[in-house]
Specification:
By secondary structure, the chain is α+β, with helices and mostly antiparallel strands. About 20% of the residues lie in helices and about 30% in strands.
């Protein structure tokens, strides 16, 4: 496991403590119970937001005299030759610039960074290539008690594979989390109706006219057909339904 530290002037003593903390966390993570974890394939993203670090460890060795935040991810099936997983940590939300970004280099990897001053945040994992299973994630914030130890506030999460809307795409990577039951969806968990809403384009506003709406539905249906999600007759039926609809017409309510 590689623990990268984002600080200006790390010294030898603190690096020794960081190596010690790696050994401790490798042991703890290896003892976590096995559950139905989330698997990320190329192009998938998983976001997790936490609002507290409930576990308190005193004293905790490893980082000496500075407050520090740490994130550690434990992965199964990681291939160093083909797999690339980007990790982004955000102080408050995805709308801000990440506090730290790194690409995982092995199955147990992480980073430490100064400036994370509270007990909440957001992490986003994006699979750039290959495929891995996320076994666990550990977050902690440590404040110093003296030159050699501190008080650590910690949270370890085992992401569980949950599909709330039952469309076959897990919540962590589902871009349309409220798909109606029975709807055919793409790899991102979105149906054609969700990708091409009657009310207007996903980018905002309304359809310029009925033709623009029908054209968008036709493109989405063609993509679904090419991906093997619908048959040619189903594609034609979807386009006919769009033609008969009032979507994009001025009188449509």
């Amino acid at each position: 496991m590689v623990l990268r530290h984002k600080t200006k002037n790390p010294n030898t003593k603190e690096k020794t403590y960081e190596r010690l903390i790696l050994l401790i966390f490798a042991t703890l993570v290896a003892c976590l119970p096995v559950s139905s974890q989330i698997t990320l394939n190329a192009g998938d993203s998983f976001t997790y937001q936490f609002t507290s670090l409930p576990d308190v460890i005193v004293p905790a060795d490893g980082f000496g005299t500075r407050p520090v935040g740490v994130f550690i991810v434990n992965l199964s099936g990681f291939n160093v030759g083909t797999d690339m997983l980007r990790v982004e940590m955000f102080e408050n939300s995805l709308s801000e610039a990440p506090a730290v970004t790194f690409v995982a280099e092995q199955s147990l990897d992480g980073t430490s960074f100064d400036g994370w001053a509270d007990f909440q945040g957001v992490v986003r994992l994006t699979m750039l290539s290959g495929s891995v299973t996320v076994d666990s994630m550990t977050f902690f914030h440590q404040v110093p008690l003296d030159d050699f130890s501190g008080r650590r506030y910690q949270l370890t999460v085992v992401p569980v594979a949950v599909d709330s809307d039952g469309d076959g795409v897990l919540d962590g990577v589902d871009q349309c989390p409220n798909t109606p039951a029975g709807a055919v969806v793409d790899e991102h968990g979105c149906s054609i109706d969700e990708l091409v809403p009657c009310a207007g384009p996903l980018s905002g506003g309304t359809w310029r006219n009925h033709g623009q709406y029908v054209l968008a539905v036709g493109r989405a249906a063609a993509a679904f057909h090419s991906a093997g999600l619908i048959t040619a007759s189903e594609k034609r039926a979807i386009i006919r339904a769009a033609l008969r609809s009032g979507c994009g017409r001025r009188h449509h309510d």
